[in-house]
Amino acid sequence: MINLDLYLITTEVPQMGRSHIDVARAGIAGGASVIQFREKGKDNQTIYEIACKIRELTRKAGIPFIVNDRVDIALAVDADGVHVGQKDMPAAAVSSLIGKVKIVGASVSSIEEAVRAEREGASYLGVGPIFPTPSKSDAGEPIGCEMLAQIRKSVSIPLVAIGGINLNNVEDVFKAGADGIAVISAVACAPDMEQAVKELLKKFKELKCSKNRKE
């Protein structure tokens, strides 16, 4: 079991002079519970070098480091897990390559995809996009909180809501059944990245505490 409260996916923001490393470092300082490295546009050597640096940061911080899609990179840097999309390698195949003790996440946007990913051995599901998002051009149409709630009822593994998550809608995804929130631009494009992480995490933890008190 891992803490999925605030799952930060790194990106580059050239117009603000921010690299994957900058985003990861700020996320860790702010209290992010998981860091995922996602990069599809660079050469393998560069991707490996960036992954090595983030692996070092996360290891020192004692938080899980997930590599998006690239099983080879994850193995090379001894990442804690791999996250795959619907067009990537199935979760079961990834698990067989990286080992049963590693984390395998899967992106889903429907009940059918969620049930299949759980059956294939996914450790958690990234559900979305919940809301419109500027961070991923291939994200697809928003599925909304209603679908998130339906998926919550269909599987037993943890769900991380992704896609357009910000302070204004954290409560909506939490009430729909999210066990954590995944963010990209809400942090990477914020004036103060570390503060953005702290505020999002504080909001999510308050919601969890409130629910626990009621139960």
TrEMBL record:
Read off the CDD domains from this record.
TMP_TenI (cd00564)
Q: What class of enzyme is it?
A: transferase
Enzyme Commission number(s) from the entry? 2.5.1.3
* Pathway it works in: Cofactor biosynthesis; thiamine diphosphate biosynthesis; thiamine phosphate from 4-amino-2-methyl-5-diphosphomethylpyrimidine and 4-methyl-5-(2-phosphoethyl)-thiazole: step 1/1
Residues binding 2-[(2R,5Z)-2-carboxy-4-methylthiazol-5(2H)-ylidene]ethyl phosphate: T133, P134, S135, G164, I184, S185
Q: How is the cofactor bound?
A: Binds 1 Mg(2+) ion per subunit.
Q: Which InterPro entries match?
A: Aldolase_TIM, ThiamineP_synth_sf, ThiamineP_synth_TenI, TMP_synthase
The entry's family comment says: Belongs to the thiamine-phosphate synthase family.
The record's PANTHER family line, in alphabetical order, gives: THIAMINE-PHOSPHATE PYROPHOSPHORYLASE, THIAMINE-PHOSPHATE SYNTHASE
- Protein name according to UniProt: Thiamine-phosphate synthase
Task: Please tell me the species this chain comes from.
Answer: Candidatus Hakubella thermalkaliphila
Gene name for this UniProt entry: thiE
